[in-house]
């Protein structure tokens, strides 16, 4: 099969696109013909070795996929040949990735694609929607009528948080770096969108939520607690899902006296049961048209290294080049 893989961690140029043996599904695995895969910042960290993981070599990159079941392992029971499925949590913790024509995936990490939902949509939603669900539902327990703030409402995670929060009945305040992206935030359902390059973000948040922010979802690698904590409502919840090397100032007094809570999580630590609960909601919202991933561009598998370079520039170098996800077509 054709695959994008590395023989050692390092820069995007380490990615090789070539032939590898097609995997054989064992035990409860399924062999999935990959129709679409999606790129996430964590994929670039694993490829670069900045997130140390025990990975098999040669290592196929990529977490997310959507495709069709081609073969069923001897103990797999949840799916049959021909089923359209989507999933995430591949390409890490010893599991091979998804940037290939085929992937052997344990059935516990896969979910049916709802009728009428494209492979590109399902793949682009995978990691980001599961991440959003874990933070909003499992951890923050966002309630209808509450107000949520998320930095970067057009990014991969941010756009999912905006849409999912609206599906849960919340009011959403967000930011973007251009007037065009501000409009995109409104198109996604945001009630208030702030241009962080031309407006005073703190003042605008206070104006938009005079009683405080109930849930603050931080996407930035360097969180500004000194800005955020005074803007939280009593019993406000703050979600962290980025910034491994960040060491921000933590103003304790403005946090604990209001009874606030801080949640940090990485999606790959979630159990299959937690992710399946999220996938059930996600599938219902996908079928109803309430979740639509922001896809910046679709690229062929041959351009996997270029896709990684673009993602890295946008995430780490903060180039702002991407307004959504990169989808890879094997």
Can you walk through the features of this model?
- The model has no long low-confidence stretch (mean pLDDT 95).
- The strands form 3 sheets. Strands 3, 5, 6, 7, 8, 15 and 16 form a 7-stranded mixed β-sheet that branches.
- 29% of the residues lie in helices and 26% in strands.
- Strand 10, helix 4 and strand 11 form a beta-alpha-beta unit.
- It has 330 residues and is an alpha/beta fold.
- The chain has 2 domains: 2-113 and 294-329, Alpha-Beta Complex (Quinone Oxidoreductase, Chain A, domain 1), CATH 3.90.180; 127-267, NAD(P)-binding Rossmann-like Domain (Rossmann fold, 3-Layer(aba) Sandwich), CATH 3.40.50.
- The longest helix has 21 residues, at 119-139.
- Helix 2 (119-139) packs across helix 3 (156-167) and helix 2 (119-139) crosses helix 8 (272-287).
- It is globular, with a radius of gyration of 20 Å.
List keywords for this structure.
330 residues; alpha/beta; Quinone Oxidoreductase, Chain A, domain 1; Rossmann fold; seven-stranded mixed beta sheet; six-stranded parallel beta sheet; 9 helices; 29% helix
